[in-house]
Amino acid sequence: MKIKCVAIDDEPLALALMQEYIARTPQLELVKTFDDAIEGKLFLQSNSVDLLFADINMPDISGIDIVRSLQERPMIIFTTAYKNYALEGFELDAVDYLLKPISFERFTRAVNKASEYFEYKQKTERPGPDSLFVYSEYRLVKIPLTEIDYIESLEDYIRIHLSAGKPIMTLMTMKKVLEKLPQNEFRRIHRGYIVAVSRVKSILNKKARLQSGAELPISDSYLDFIADWRKV
Predict the structure, then answer these.
(1) Does the pLDDT of residue 119 top 90, yes or no?
(2) 39 CB contacts (<8 Å, ≥6 apart)?
(3) 182: cis peptide before it, omega within 30°?
(4) Which residue in 21, 1, 24 sits closest to 9, CA to CA?
(5) 3-class SS at 139?
(6) How far apart are CA 96 and CA 10, in angstroms?
(7) Of the candidates 134, 119, 84, 110, which has an alpha carbon nearest to the alpha carbon of residue 18?
(8) Pairing outcome for strands 148-154 and 139-144
């Protein structure tokens, strides 16, 4: 399935280059281009697309303000000549941020990232997603489910502990991340912990010992996990 996209940029040469790059990219289908930001905003408010390439610094309305005005947001790749907009762009969950002049190689890396995320979103509508996508340190990060040991709650954030490598922190609630995980593979065992069922090596005194050696408490509210684990 092709990714339907729109490009908005008030610079004709930059817009023409973006159009050329999109035409050279098989997984993309260009729906429309706009050199007028207001027209682009109005089109997006009444038409659904999968991906938006938006210049940030435009005279009438910024690309950031366009995105903020949309109730249903597509994936976003921001383009700009100014580095100082990066933080604000990623706060809107942008897939990537391209600094002008943009090479085709860098454009392709951004599109590949969007393609992976697009496929992930399609899979989450069907059973059996194999990866979790989260935003961490202003980047979209793909985490294979097989690499997750357990997830720890830190108030508004969660820390995802992996079988190898550093834990990954992201702004997300435990409830939200549970919605993204297969229920038969990940279970909540405590207010502060979600565990990968396959990583549990033993249970003793309401504590789950993982293959990594970590020990996690099992609260009284989730004691049914022990009985279910015995059946695995």
Answers:
(1) no
(2) none
(3) no
(4) 21
(5) strand
(6) 20
(7) 110
(8) unpaired
| Alpha-carbon distance values, 155 to 10, 66, 107, 174, 193 (Å) | 42, 31, 36, 9, 12
Q: Which pair of structure tokens corresponds to residue 157?
A: 């954030």
The single residue listed with the structure tokens 């990583």 is 199
* Distance separating alpha carbons of residues 11 and 19, to the nearest angstrom: 12
**Residue 151 is encoded by which pair of tokens?**
């997830």
How many beta carbons lie within 10 A of that of residue 183, not counting itself?
9
In the three-class reduction of DSSP (H, G, I as helix; E, B as strand; rest coil), residue 137 is classed as coil
Residue 7 CA to residue 133 CA, distance in Å, equals 24
Give the whole-angstrom CA distance, residue 201 versus residue 29: 48
Picking from 166, 82, 189, 93, the residue whose alpha carbon sits closest to that of residue 135 is 93
Nearest to 102 by CA among 25, 1, 3: 25
Taking the C-alpha atoms of residue 191 and residue 214, their distance in angstroms, rounded to an integer, is 17
In this prediction, residue 128 carries a pLDDT of: 54
Q: Three-state SS for 35?
A: coil
> Cα separation of 54 and 65, whole Å?
10
pLDDT in tens, 149-198: 999 999 889 999 999 889 999 999 999 899 889 888 999 999 999 999 99
Determine if the pTM surpasses 0.70: no
